[in-house]
Design brief:
Blueprint: H1 4-13, E1 36-37, E2 43-53, E3 58-67, E4 73-79, H2 84-97, E5 108-111, H3 120-129, E6 133-135, H4 145-157, H5 167-183, H6 195-204, E7 212-213
Parallel strand pairs: 2-5, 5-6
Antiparallel strand pairs: 1-7, 2-3, 3-4
Helix pairs in contact: 2-3
Domain Integrase catalytic: 24-203
InterPro entries: Integrase_cat-core, RNaseH-like_sf, RNaseH_sf, Transposase_IS3/IS150/IS904
Pfam families: rve_3
Amino acid sequence: MINKKKVYRLCHELNILRPQRKIQTKYPRKLARNRIITDSNQLFETDIKYGYITGEDRFFYIQSCLDVYDRSVVAFHIGLRCEAKDVVRTLQAALLKRQLFEAVEKPVIRSDNGPQFISHIFEKACETFGIEHERIPPRTPNMNAHIESFHRLLQDECLARYDFQTYAEAYEAVSEFILFYNERRIHSSIRDLSPTEFHAKNRITPIPIKEVRV
């Protein structure tokens, strides 16, 4: 008759038992739902776009986090890669810039189903930050329409106009475009103001605009 205790002890001494795999917390997928946005800091949309560096024959990545009410690019990441840890830093930067870590009501963050956004790292960060993360269904970019619109502008008014020779050139051009977009580019949907100007004025005295349905 086999003595199971002796077998276990022998295996342990010979270091041939495989350690038990840690069970990671699984986060339920929350589908994006229809919302009416009435102020800043209620809904952020985020997505990733790539550009090409001709002189180095490689791609670079831009992740933007946009407030759908005031149209501001609250935070962004530019890099030769864009991993889960990078999108976490962008979200953290957005919350810090808007001073929302101590706020009772925090924005919902909406994304597509890219690997960075469905990662355990990103979901854990959202839980830690105390914000809700919702994902649009596959093949429904219209549910992330505001960030899609910004990335079309980025493509047409910046990326398509340059033949980047270095990553440094690409970084500078994209950074300058986002600054221009936030500070000087006017939007008819926010009373022909720039996102930064609208956000600042709206904080002092609410500016009525057409309700934002997403």
